[in-house]
């Protein structure tokens, strides 16, 4: 290890000191006294509202075009995936410096498990995201009610031919990809080493959302965001949307938990550090 450092210094590379940031307070009650906290909640609400408005409008518009007999018309599944991924890229870029750019209860849950946000912040973020999603879908219905009702309201449902287990697995894996990308793109160790990492963070996050949608739209319509699924179900209020709703909460939360554990305890070697600390203290 010492040889590697000496060689890197000889090569002219300046190594940067890095210390892992302390975990956020579990409850975080003191945050309730800060305006920046409420500003972040507002940012999450507005961002999720805009996100749902764009993606539901895109889906409804595409279905209305192909229903008119033009099978080659509209943006297609590829276009829907680009719209979702692109909108996430834009919104994360806009809100990262204010709220962290979560826009997804599963992302917030994963960051909470990793002690990167407090419990109070996590809960209020999730509430703001769900309310924003409901309002975003409500705007689409208000502007395009006939098309909205006719073409299913863009509600997430398990598609024909797939079992509930398959749908659940698709949501778990898809959310794992997203939350793992979020952890990697916002890793403070990488930011300390490479100054361009924070600037580029929204790009891989948006691209991960794009790729997951390509893989899972045929299975579940792609949830990986409980607020997105809840907002569409509340406004559309159809039986099947509610029957499958649990998949779009249980799956993303499990996927986020696995991603948080993998990044923090496997890649971050927290288990090894803890064992090393225990062994060293046992010899004192």
Task: Describe, in plain words, how this protein is organized in 3D.
With 284 residues, the protein is mainly α. It has one domain (29-266): Up-down Bundle (Glycerol uptake facilitator protein). Helices cover 71% and strands 0% of the residues. It contains 14 helices and no strands. α2 (35-67) packs parallel to α5, α4 (105-113) crosses α7 and α7 crosses α13. Mean pLDDT is 86; it is low at 1-15. It comes from Papaver somniferum (Opium poppy). The chain crosses the membrane at residues 41-62, 74-98, 119-143, 167-185, 197-219, 246-263. Belongs to the MIP/aquaporin (TC 1.A.8) family. PIP (TC 1.A.8.11) subfamily.
Characteristics:
284 residues, mainly alpha, 71% helix, globular, transmembrane, channel activity, MIP_CS, transport, transmembrane helix
Write the layout of secondary structure elements.
Layout: H1 2-10, H2 35-67, H3 76-95, H4 105-113, H5 119-143, H6 145-150, H7 164-185, H8 188-193, H9 197-200, H10 202-220, H11 226-236, H12 239-243, H13 247-267, H14 270-282
Give the end-to-end Cα distance, rounded to a whole number of Å.
25 Å
Name the CATH superfamily classification: Glycerol uptake facilitator protein
For the biggest sheet, the summary is: none
CATH topology name, in short, is Glycerol uptake facilitator protein
Question: Which term fits the overall shape?
Answer: globular
| Number of helices in the DSSP assignment | 14
Structural class: mainly alpha
GO cellular component, one term: membrane
Main location: membrane
Protein name: Aquaporin
Organism: Papaver somniferum (Opium poppy)
């Amino acid at each position: 290890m010492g040889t590697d450092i000496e060689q890197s210094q000889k090569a002219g590379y300046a190594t940067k000191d890095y210390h892992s940031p302390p975990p956020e307070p579990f409850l975080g009650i003191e945050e309730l006294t800060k305006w920046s906290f409420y500003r972040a909640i507002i940012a999450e609400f507005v961002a999720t509202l805009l996100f749902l408005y764009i993606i539901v409008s895109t889906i409804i518009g595409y279905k209305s075009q192909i229903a008119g007999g033009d099978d080659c018309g509209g943006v297609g599944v590829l276009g829907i995936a680009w719209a979702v991924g692109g909108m996430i890229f834009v919104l994360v870029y806009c809100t990262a410096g204010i709220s962290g750019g979560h826009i997804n209860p599963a992302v917030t849950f994963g960051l909470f498990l990793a002690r990167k946000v407090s419990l109070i912040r996590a809960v209020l973020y999730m509430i703001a995201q769900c309310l924003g999603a409901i309002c975003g879908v409500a705007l689409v219905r208000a502007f395009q009610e006939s098309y909205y009702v006719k073409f299913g309201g863009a509600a997430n449902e398990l598609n024909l031919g797939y079992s509930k287990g398959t749908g659940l697995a698709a949501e778990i894996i898809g959310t794992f990809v997203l939350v793992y990308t979020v952890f990697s793109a916002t890793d403070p160790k990488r930011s300390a080493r490479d100054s361009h990492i924070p600037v580029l963070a929204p790009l891989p996050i948006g691209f991960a959302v794009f790729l997951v949608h390509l893989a899972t739209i045929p299975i579940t319509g792609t949830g990986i965001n409980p607020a997105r699924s809840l907002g569409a179900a509340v406004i559309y209020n159809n039986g099947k949307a509610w029957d499958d709703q649990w998949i779009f909460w249980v799956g993303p939360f499990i996927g986020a938990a696995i991603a948080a554990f993998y990044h923090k305890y496997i890649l971050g070697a927290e288990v090894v550090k803890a064992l090393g600390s225990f062994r060293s203290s046992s010899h004192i």
